[in-house]
Amino acid sequence: MIGRLLAALAAAFAAACCAATAHAAPRAESAVECGIAADMAVVAHSLAREEVQRPKAGLIMARIYDVAESERGKEIMKEILDAAYSTSTAAAGGSGQKFAEDLFTACMNTGGNLDTILGKRL
Question: What pLDDT digit, counting tens, does each position of 5-50 carry?
C-alpha cells in the first residue's frame, strides 16, 4: 500500500517537473543571444505600443530576426512578443528601453534564463 502511494507520488512529481519545464521560456545560450533578445524586446515593445496587430507583429519580427530556421529562436521571439503585448509583465507600462535593459540584465545574470522578465516560472 505504501509502496503504491510512493510510486504514485513519484510519478506525479515527475509529471509536474516535466510540465513545468515545458512552460519555461528557452534559455539564451550566449551573451550575443542575450543581446539579440534585448533588441527583440525593444522592437516588440514598440510594435505593441503602436498597436500593430499581434499576428502582424510576429511576421515583422520573424522577417527582421530571420528565425525561420530556429525553433528555439522562434520560441524566444514568441515569448518576448507575448510579454510585450501582455499587461501583466515587466514590459507593461514601461519603456522599450527599460524592458530591454531588464531582459538583458536578467539574461546575463542568470546564464540565459529569460523567465523572470518574460513572466514564466519554473
Answer: 333 333 333 343 343 444 576 889 999 999 999 999 999 999 999 9
The phi-psi region of residue 93 (left if phi > 0; otherwise alpha if psi is between -120 and 50; otherwise beta) is left
Report the domain count for the chain.
1
- Alpha carbon distance 115, 41 (integer Å): 14
- Residue 81's domain spans which residues? 2-118
> Which cell numbers hold the place of 49?
505600443
